[in-house]
Amino acid sequence: MSNPVIETEEHRALRSSVAALGKRYGREYLARTVAEGGHADALWAEAAKLGYLGVNLPEEYGGGGGGIAELSIVLEELGAAGCPLLMLVVSPAICGTVIARFGTEEQQRTWLPGLADGTRTMAFGITEPDAGSNSHRITTTARREGGGWVLNGRKVFISGVDIADATLIVGRTEDARTGRLKPCLFIVPRDAPGFGRSPIDMELAAAEKQFELTLDEVRLPADALVGDEDAGLLQLFAGLNPERIMTAAFALGMGRYALDRALDYARTRQVWKEPIGAHQAIAHPLAQAHIELELARLMTQKAAHLYDAGDDMGAGEAANMAKYAAAEAAVHAVDQAVHTLGGNGLTREYGLASMITAARVARVAPVSREMILNFVSHQSLGLPKSY
Known about the structure:
Order of helices and strands: HHHHHEEEEEEEHHHHHH
Largest sheet: 4 strands, antiparallel
Number of strands: 7
Helix content: 40-55%
Number of helices: 11
């Protein structure tokens, strides 16, 4: 899958080199890591050594000086090789971007070099048990006290907290002028007193674990606040748009991997005179899955381009559309791949069955497809809200 007109020569070279890295590890490595209850440390370290983890971060802090367009290529190609790194979505894409754009000089010096070279990681905590996709119902609060901040609240489905040096927590502070609560972002070290975590038992087979977090009178210094207290919403969406673009890349990689496995099988599996791929009932659904993935990739590239160009409004619409399209394409591709293999599609040998659950992640996280349809109907089409 290549786009010589859409992508630059540098992007194509990046795809090729990351694909080579992914091929050296592959699905077998990831499956073994998950079975052993470990983390993809070896792949993470090699990707860091090659400069892929911080390709979107500023050069002055050890990054590649690129953008979300480049980082999304890294994640997509690793996913297409069967070994995606979910923490790419969280650590460099969300947290690294927010700190690079809005963090103080001290925060940037402290965090960006480590995020770029992979020696430090950061998790992102926004989702709450009673808020769902409604960020306006976030109840984690931060109050000023003694020259610093005190945080209280709960978060759920937070990825990689066990391996992260800190978590970028979305809380709410009181606006001194209006008395209303407004979103703000805080860097919470993993060993901060009162900051607890407990694993969530997931059916999903992944190297990155999910956690519920509790913040019980967590005391932070004044400089734990990222950026300007009055720019919280702008800073929040500076992280959420890359999150949606990277989720789209994650889904594209997964869909491509599943489709490639199905194509390999359809070209060689012979029941009658010709391989089963010669039959239109097999060939056409696979062709349709390929088309859907290609279309979703184009929207993902558009979203990344708009974001990297500084068009936050345009990127918001495109990022939501890209995430929706890629998630639907991935679910369809995985389903058709399993169907193509028949009984073999449900065996451990072929490694597709576990992807049935994994493919649905992009449909429900980080925001549900229904909320994306709400966004498009309101923001793009100008239709009234029902809530």
